[in-house]
Every structure is written in structure tokens, then in C-alpha cells.
Specification:
Helix content: 25-40%
Strand order of the largest sheet: 6-5-4-3-2-1-7
Oligomer: single chain
Number of helices: 12
Structural class: alpha+beta
């Protein structure tokens, strides 16, 4: 059987560029070379797409230094032409046909529906959530509103919009949420730009830092809670992994704790009772459906210590796949090694594309009846 040609996209114009390199390397190594031909596509911080074996070599080197993807390789683009389904060289060379794309991109210009829209226009099967779910899953304000409207339990939050007077924003936070609180860019992940604010005097600097990544900022109440995560896999009938607990080594699970210090400790399966585990896993599937997700997601939760309430924190539609990331660890503990998860994700991408291809994209109005034609003719006089 012929191998599937899998375009693996990585890098991107995002504060999570470096994390994407590590995730993509894990995906590339999980794809069985007997079944798949990997076509690496490095997206630089300048937004240019490059392919070729050099980009794969540089991806390997980036694992040691965590350096940005180097500016080398043949420049390509993806034309919004569903009859081609190929990467198109910007210089000499023939188009590079692809069977499916695995966009291992985190954050803006990759996980937020932008690349997914391009792939839809190109008629290309791709792994993961579609345009709507990607956009809602990326925007924390829209995500929380979707969860709230679906009747799912979330913590209190508010949105600071671009141009809002900083003093007014600070007053709203103090009045509606109090301190401590968490300040986050609305559209970013990997805990980039997030700050825990303990006093009103520290709020302006935290808001400015978050706004440097995204002009829309989400502020959440601070709660005393344990943190849990669940991996989800599937399309119309998604499955939930076992529940895992994160024990941060920092005051909260920030970027350094995730990717630099390697101090956070996952406990899988989580040491909780069966009823709480079942509740969290069911809510993970509810959250997945609430934003019309597909393919994969990691859903994060709080278990409030004083009350025992389970609160939905957020959903990540392209979770980290690095060796220390929770998504592959959770499935490993559930009996699915990461290569098997990647096989399933590619199958789900092709399945979803085939289903969408059966849609009617044109409408032919019915021919008018004889009586209708007579009435129309009479009316025209």
C-alpha cells in the first residue's frame, strides 16, 4: 500500500513558536515511516513557509537549543485551490502533493482558525479542530462564554477590551473579582503572558504585559484549587483519557514550570475518587462538544479545595505533544502510545474530510409549476 504523504506544519508566527518545534519533533518521530512519508513545512516567525530535508534537520537541532526554526529550505505556499491539494514552490520546482496536513502549531496564526481556514480553502484534509472550534478554543473570552451558555461550570471572569481606561479596568477587577486574580492574553497558550496578581497596585503592569501579546485581556478570579487535565480524541463520538493531576513547582503552572525548569510533576491517574474522575471526564467531553471540536483536545479543570466544586478552566485544540506534555502522557496511561494516537488522528482527519466532501455546495432551484409560471407572467404585465 502506498504511503500517505503527511505535511507536518510547525513553528509559526506565535509566542509559542519554540514549543511548536518540540511538539512537531515528537509527531514526526511518532509517524511510522513504513506508512507515512513526512513532508516537513517550517513556518518562520516572519510567516514564510519552507520545506525540504534541511528543515527537518534543523527541527532536530532545535530540540537541543530550543532555537527558532532557521531560515533555510525551499520557499513554498499553499494555494487556496481544492483541485491541487499541494504545496506550491515560490521558485523553480514542481508542486508537492499532500494527502493530509498535521498542523502542529500552537497559538496565534496556527491554532486559532487562520491556518484551518486556508486548509479548508485548499480542500486539504487536516488533523484537529475546524475553523470555528479552533477560533473559539483560542479566544479565552469566547471559549468561556460558550461554556457558560452550554451550562458548564466555570470560574468568574471579565474581559478588559482594547482602549479601556486602565483605572476603570482596575476598579472593575477589584469590585467583581478581587485579589488574587489571573491576568491572561485572550488569544495565546502555554501560559505565555500570564500573571498572578495579588494586589491592586500590581494590576496595571500585568494588564500591559498581557496586552502586549493580545489587546484583549481576560482576568479570572483566583481560586484555591487542584489542577487536572483530560485528553480527548475523536470526532462525533469522542473518547476521554484517564484524568491526570498537575503538581506545579512554581506558584502556578507558568511557562518556565512547563518547559524550562521541568519542575512540575504530573500524577497519572489522578489520586481522586471514582465519582470525581467520572465527573471530570464527562465534562471534558461536554466541553469538546460545546465548541464543536474534532480530532483532539486537552481539557483543563480546577477542583476547588474549600468546596469540592469541579470548574472547567479551558480547552486546548492543539495541545502540546512534547515528551513532557500531558496529552501524550494521558493517552499512554490510558493504553494508547503516542504513535497509535497519531495514527488515529490522521484517520480522523481523513474521515472528517470525507464527511464534509459529501455536503451540497450548490443549489438548483426547482422548475416553476405551470400555474406558477402563469401567475408570474400575469404579474409581469
Amino acid at each position: 500500500m502506498a504511503r500517505l504523504r503527511v505535511g507536518v506544519l510547525y513553528g509559526g508566527r506565535s509566542g509559542e513558536h519554540e514549543v511548536s518545534l518540540r511538539s512537531a519533533w515528537a509527531v514526526v518521530n511518532a509517524l511510522d515511516p513504513a506508512r507515512y512519508e513526512v513532508v516537513p513545512v517550517a513556518i518562520g516567525k516572519d510567516g514564510r513557509w519552507r520545506t525540504g530535508r534541511d528543515t527537518l534537520k534543523l527541527l532536530e537541532e532545535a530540540q537541543r537549543a530550543l532555537a527558532p526554526a532557521a531560515e533555510s529550505g525551499a520557499e513554498v505556499t499553499l494555494a487556496p485551490d481544492p483541485t491541487r491539494r499541494a504545496l506550491v514552490p515560490l521558485g523553480p520546482g514542481a508542486p508537492i502533493p499532500l494527502d493530509v496536513v498535521f498542523p502542529v502549531l500552537h497559538g496565534t496564526f496556527g491554532e486559532d482558525g487562520t491556518v484551518q481556514g486556508l486548509l479548508e480553502l485548499a480542500g486539504m484534509p487536516y488533523v484537529g479542530a475546524g475553523v470555528l472550534a479552533s477560533a473559539v478554543g483560542m479566544d479565552k473570552a469566547a471559549m468561556k462564554a460558550s461554556f457558560r451558555d452550554a451550562g458548564l461550570p466555570v470560574c468568574r471572569w471579565l474581559v478588559v477590551t482594547p482602549g479601556e481606561d486602565p483605572a476603570r479596568a482596575a476598579a472593575r477587577v477589584a469590585d467583581q473579582l478581587g485579589f488574587p486574580c489571573f491576568v491572561k492574553p485572550a488569544n495565546l497558550g502555554s501560559s505565555v503572558g500570564i500573571a498572578k496578581v495579588k494586589a491592586a497596585g500590581d494590576l496595571p503592569a500585568a494588564l500591559a504585559e498581557a496586552a502586549s501579546y493580545d489587546p484583549k485581556v481576560v482576568v479570572e478570579e483566583g481560586i484555591d484549587a487542584r489542577e487536572f487535565e483530560v485528553a480527548v480524541l475523536g470526532n462525533a463520538a469522542p473518547e476521554a483519557s484517564v484524568v491526570g493531576e498537575l503538581l506545579p513547582s512554581h506558584e502556578f503552572y507558568d511557562y518556565a514550570d512547563k518547559y524550562v525548569d521541568d519542575g512540575a510533576r504530573p500524577v497519572i491517574p489522578a489520586p481522586i475518587d471514582a465519582a470525581t474522575s467520572d465527573r471530570i471526564r464527562a465534562l471534558a467531553l461536554d466541553a469538546f462538544r460545546a465548541i464543536d471540536c474534532s480530532g483532539l483536545a486537552r481539557v483543563d479543570f480546577f477542583l476547588e479545595r474549600p468546596t469540592g466544586r469541579v470548574l472547567l478552566n479551558e480547552i486546548n485544540t492543539m495541545p502540546g505533544c512534547t515528551p513532557i506534555s500531558m496529552y501524550p502522557k494521558l493517552w499512554e496511561a490510558s493504553g494508547r502510545p503516542f504513535p497509535a494516537v497519531c495514527d488515529r488522528l490522521i484517520a480522523l482527519a481523513l474521515e472528517r474530510h470525507a464527511e464534509r466532501a459529501r455536503r451540497r455546495l450548490s443549489f438548483t432551484p426547482p422548475a416553476p409549476t405551470v400555474s406558477g409560471a402563469r401567475r408570474s407572467s400575469a404579474g409581469s404585465r
